[in-house]
Each structure stands twice: as structure tokens, then as C-alpha cells.
């Protein structure tokens, strides 16, 4: 079993989601499976050799990076912890006899039989701290897979598990075994296969959902004070990078297009098919869901933006940060012909990053789409690969360009500010506890570019007035509180904006 985890939350609670998969799905946050590393020439000794060359005491950033490697590999002795707690003091006294011998420490760890994945993740921590906030090594076999895969598949029951304080909460994924069997959003997990889980740690409970295809998992749930027992058969579940459907929560037909990432070379063609299907189905407007989309290929963004903006519109200006290639700026234009002129709303959140921010920002600059949700991540840079350390199977990605949107602004550190700030839940906080670019990376590129001035403030105020008077999204949310699926306040708000503005209601 492989699982992808992601932290989300508001001021009150932080949740961790686990998605049960057998093959690791293509995502931009570089979680790498052991099967991919084993197909390369990567070894722990390569990491030790690189760190020895760099010298952990060369500067404070290098020292912080080496400490991060030691802790990621499980060495958190007193000297490591004390040094990490006071980097300045530790660096200033490193010439003394009591300084940490990192070469000896890392050589010892080589013999500890740690996984290749753990070593690669540890070295990537070093790179992001000591060298470049978005530098990382990556196996070439997985990169090839990422560029060609349009989706993935996994064996499971199609459920998200969240730990909320002391309870484990289940949320079924629509039209998958858990949903069909009767699991409802908000169900509290009590037992698995006859075993109570109240004294088990969260990761142990997660592992209990693993199993072979066609095997049965027995769940005991608590729902509104009643005990519910369900037997659910694990099946192979296809997961598409681009999914779409008609939604009619407001009584009007709108097309919803959810894009997980822009890594796949089929993303644009998949979205073009989605537009055709939704228009043929009678959609009066479209909603592009870029929540939790961490980016991908700029070429795919150029193509996708063209479907909504038309061909040869400026998408992004990129500043060359390497000094190589004989140019400073490069202009990237949309590449696809106009596919649709339907009204459009784009939903974003704090995990909308990089290339997906370019699309949302360009739509906002051209006034092609209303953007709603929460402030985006704030990654306004591009990374490019070279082969790492003489290897033919390991790639090193490093930052080479900075993004500027068509208006001249940059999303770096700042992110994209939605036209309509809409929390995930009615009355929820708009101050996210999710860490963004400026929170995660002390060495992130500075914020530059023109200041963003929203020129549609009057229109926004009028739509907001209409929405607050009708309370359409709120009423839909309340009506869905007892639904088996998680109510989506931001989606209902997007539909309400389309109904109010796009249809002139």
C-alpha cells in the first residue's frame, strides 16, 4: 500500500488525509515510491559523498541542512537537538573540539539499513534548506511515468480518513465502494475487522485498510449515537487526473471540471474533452476546480488557458535566474484555440500552487473568470532538471525562472487573492493554518512585480450583495449537512456566482 497524506484545516483543527493506493499517484510534491528508486543507481553513499563535498560548516544554511538530514534519518541525539535549537551559537563554535562530526555521523547511518526513499527525502530536505527552496532529486523512471500518465488506479474502498482530535472520521469518495456501501460523511470509526481502534495510533489504523482486491473489510461506525456495521469489498478504483460532471445545486446546469495537476501530457486534451461533454450536456457555465492542484508543466498550462482565452494571449513572463542562454526574459503565450466562451468561475485554496496559480491569475487579469476560495500558495518560480552527480537515472531539479503574470504582478510569496474570499465552511476562518511558500521556506525568492489592483471591485460588491441577500450557497450547504458526501460550500458559492452574474439572475 502507498498512501498520500496532506494536512488541511482551519484555526480550530488540523486534519490529515490518507488516500489508499497501491501505486503512487503523480503529484507535484515529490513523494517517491521505493520501486522507482530501486530502478536507479541511487545509493546512500552518494548522499554522504555530496554532503562531504559541500561541508556542513561552510555557512549557517548548510549547517541547518545537515542537521535536517540527520534528524530525517532518525539521528536526534542531544548534540543534534542542541545545535538545531541554536544554529548561530553552534556555527560560531564549530571549530572547537565539541563540534558535530557530520562525516562520521552520516557514514554510521549508511549502515543502518534505511530505505532509499528515506535517504532521498533526507537529501531533498538538505537541498531545500541549504541551496534552493525548490531543489530536489527525482528518479528518471518516475519522471517519465509522470509525463505520460493521465491518471492512476488503486485498490481500496474509496474513503478518506481524518483524525480530528481523538476521533477518526470517514468521508466516502463519490461512487466508490465505501459510498455505495453506505459510509456517510462524518461517520466516526470505532472498529475494523472486529478490533476496536480507540487505543491504536493513527498510522496503525490507516494500515488496517490495506488489503487485496476483492477482499472484505468490516467497519464499525458511530453515526448520530447509533452503531452501524458495514462489510465493504475492496475493488480496483480508477483515478483520473481530470474529472468532470454536471452540477445542479442551484437548479441550473453548470459544468464542474476538477484538475488534480498539470504533470500529465494529456491534461489539456482531457480538459478539451470535458468542455465538449459539458457543453453538449447543456451546461450554462463552467467551474474549474484548482484546489489542491500543486502545478506541473507550463506547456500544459499554456494549452489549457488557450481553451478559455484563445490562442496567442500572454500567459506568463519568465525571468531567467541562471544567467545562461543569453536571455533575461521569456514570454509564454497560450497555444490552444478558443474552445468555450461560457461564463467561468475558478476555485482555489492554499494548496493551489505554481502552474495552477498562473492559470487562476491569468484568468483574473483578463477578467475571463471570477476566482473564489482562499489565498493561494505563492510559488512563482519554475524548476528545470539536469542529471545529478554523473548519474544517468537521477534528475536534479533547481529553480531557474521567476513568474510574472500578464498584468506584471508576481504570485511569488503573495499568491493569488481571490475576487471572492470564501471559507471552506460557512462562518469558517479565512486565515488558513496551512503553511504556504513564505511559511515553509526561509530562503524562498522575494516577492517582486507590480502591485495587484482589482479593477472589478464595484462588480464584486454588487454580486456579494446579491449573494448575501439570497444566501443561496448557505442554504444549499444546510440542506446537504446530512448527505453521505461532504458538503462543498465553495462549490455552492461558485454555482451561486454563476447563477447571479453569468445568468443575470
Question: Could you walk me through the main structural features you see in this protein, from its secondary elements to its overall organization?
Answer:
- The structure is a single chain.
- The protein is of the alpha+beta class and 505 residues long.
- The protein has three domains: 2-24 and 151-238, Roll (Pdz3 Domain); 34-131, no CATH class; 241-315 and 333-377 and 409-502, 2-enoyl-CoA Hydratase, Chain A, domain 1, CATH 3.90.226.10.
- The protein is 32% helix and 25% strand.
- It has 17 helices and 21 strands.
- It starts with a strand and ends with a helix.
- Residues 1-34 have low confidence and may be disordered.
Amino acid at each position: 500500500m502507498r498512501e498520500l497524506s496532506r494536512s488541511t484545516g482551519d484555526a480550530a483543527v488540523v486534519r490529515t488525509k490518507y488516500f489508499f493506493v497501491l501505486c503512487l499517484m503523480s503529484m507535484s510534491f515529490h513523494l517517491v515510491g521505493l520501486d522507482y528508486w530501486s530502478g536507479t543507481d541511487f545509493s546512500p553513499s552518494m548522499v554522504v559523498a555530496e554532503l562531504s563535498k559541500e561541508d556542513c560548516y561552510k555557512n549557517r544554511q548548510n549547517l541547518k541542512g545537515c542537521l535536517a538530514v540527520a534528524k530525517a534519518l532518525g539521528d536526534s541525539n542531544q548534540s543534534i537537538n542542541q545545535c538545531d535549537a541554536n544554529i548561530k551559537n553552534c556555527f560560531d563554535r564549530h571549530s572547537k573540539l565539541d563540534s558535530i562530526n557530520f562525516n562520521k555521523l552520516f557514514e554510521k547511518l549508511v549502515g543502518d539499513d534505511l530505505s532509499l526513499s528515506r535517504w532521498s527525502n533526507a537529501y531533498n530536505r538538505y537541498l531545500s534548506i541549504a541551496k534552493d527552496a525548490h531543489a530536489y532529486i527525482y528518479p528518471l523512471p518516475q519522471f517519465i511515468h509522470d509525463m505520460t500518465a493521465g491518471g492512476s488506479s488503486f485498490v481500496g474502498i474509496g474513503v478518506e480518513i481524518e483524525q480530528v482530535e481523538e476521533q477518526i472520521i470517514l468521508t466516502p469518495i463519490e461512487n466508490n465502494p465505501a459510498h455505495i456501501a453506505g459510509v456517510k460523511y462524518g461517520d466516526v470509526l470505532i472498529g475494523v475487522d472486529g478490533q476496536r481502534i480507540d487505543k491504536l495510533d493513527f498510522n496503525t489504523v490507516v494500515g488496517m485498510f490495506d488489503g487485496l482486491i476483492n477482499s472484505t473489510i468490516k467497519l464499525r461506525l458511530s453515526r448520530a449515537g447509533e452503531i452501524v456495521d458495514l462489510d465493504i469489498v475492496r475493488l480496483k478504483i480508477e483515478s483520473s487526473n481530470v474529472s468532470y460532471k454536471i452540477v445542479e445545486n442551484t437548479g441550473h446546469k453548470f459544468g464542474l471540471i476538477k484538475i488534480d495537476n498539470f504533470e500529465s501530457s494529456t491534461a489539456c486534451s482531457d480538459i478539451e474533452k470535458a468542455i465538449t461533454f459539458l457543453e453538449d450536456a447543456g451546461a450554462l457555465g463552467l467551474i474549474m476546480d484548482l484546489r489542491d492542484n500543486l502545478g506541473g508543466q507550463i506547456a500544459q498550462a499554456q494549452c489549457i488557458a488557450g481553451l478559455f482565452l484563445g490562442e496567442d494571449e500572454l500567459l506568463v513572463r519568465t525571468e531567467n535566474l541562471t544567467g545562461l542562454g543569453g536571455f533575461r526574459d521569456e514570454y509564454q503565450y497560450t497555444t490552444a484555440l478558443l474552445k468555450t466562451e461560457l461564463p467561468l468561475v475558478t476555485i482555489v485554496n492554499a494548496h493551489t500552487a505554481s502552474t495552477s496559480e498562473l492559470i487562476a491569475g491569468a484568468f483574473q487579469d483578463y477578467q475571463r473568470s471570477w476566482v473564489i476560495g482562499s489565498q493561494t500558495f505563492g510559488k512563482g518560480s519554475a524548476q528545470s532538471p539536469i542529471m545529478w552527480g554523473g548519474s544517468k537515472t537521477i534528475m536534479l531539479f533547481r529553480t531557474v525562472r521567476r513568474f510574472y503574470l500578464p498584468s506584471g504582478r508576481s504570485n511569488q510569496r503573495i499568491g493569488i487573492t481571490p475576487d471572492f474570499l470564501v471559507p471552506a465552511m460557512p462562518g469558517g476562518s479565512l486565515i488558513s493554518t496551512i503553511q504556504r511558500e513564505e511559511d515553509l521556506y526561509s530562503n524562498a525568492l522575494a516577492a517582486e512585480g507590480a502591485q495587484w489592483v482589482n479593477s472589478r471591485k464595484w462588480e464584486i460588491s454588487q454580486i456579494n450583495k446579491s449573494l448575501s441577500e439570497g444566501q443561496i450557497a448557505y442554504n444549499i450547504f444546510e440542506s446537504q449537512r446530512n448527505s453521505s458526501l461532504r458538503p462543498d460550500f465553495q462549490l455552492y458559492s461558485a454555482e451561486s456566482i454563476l447563477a447571479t452574474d453569468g445568468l443575470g439572475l
